[in-house]
Amino acid sequence: MLLYILLTILTCILIEIFLRIEIIKKINRLFAIYKKIFKVLRSKKISDDSKMRALPKYNIRSINILMKILLHFSVIIFVGYIGIMAIEYVVFSIFEQSSDKTDSQNIWQELSSYKIMLILTVVSILYYMVRNRFIKNY
């Protein structure tokens, strides 16, 4: 039961990080840049020379945004991993179990079970809905 509570708290923290980083806005900006690129490429009114000058600028912008998105996803994965390691440490220290490999593997098997994934998915959706209901500016 303690594992579920700690995982729920970790899930809420990760959702909050995901929302604060504003990855969705960055992805939308990236799609807007791609639309501009395709618009430039399809245009018959723009000369090939102008296209050659415009496309590298759009590519640099898109690479910049992609690198930011990659960095943000890396931060979320890192925080999640550290959180799971902390949960494992807390569970072992509270129940005074030895932290040998078999106990560690049991927790990792529990984390990868469909039951936990379904519970955390439902918790994520509920947290997001409740959060949006009370915080209007996001």
Describe the structure.
The protein is 86% helix and 0% strand. 1% of the residues are buried. The mean pLDDT is 84. It contains five helices and no strands. It has helices at 2-21, 23-42, 48-94, 101-111, 114-134. It is mainly α.
Précis, in short:
Helix content is 86%, strand content 0%. The protein contains five helices and no strands.
**Uncertain regions: pLDDT < 50 for 5+ in a row?**
none
Number of strands: 0
In whole angstroms, the N-to-C terminal distance is: 32 Å
Give helix and strand order, one letter per element, not per position: HHHHH
Largest sheet: none
What is the SS-derived class?
Answer: mainly alpha
Helix share bin: over 70%
- Strand fraction equals under 5%
Q: Any idea what the shape is? A: elongated
**Would you tell me the overall average pLDDT?**
84
- Total helices: the number is 5
Mind telling me the C-alpha Rg? 22 Å
Features of the shown structure:
mainly alpha, 86% helix, 138 residues
Please render the helix and strand layout as text:
Elements: H1 2-21, H2 23-42, H3 48-94, H4 101-111, H5 114-134
Helix pairs in contact: 1-3, 1-5, 2-3
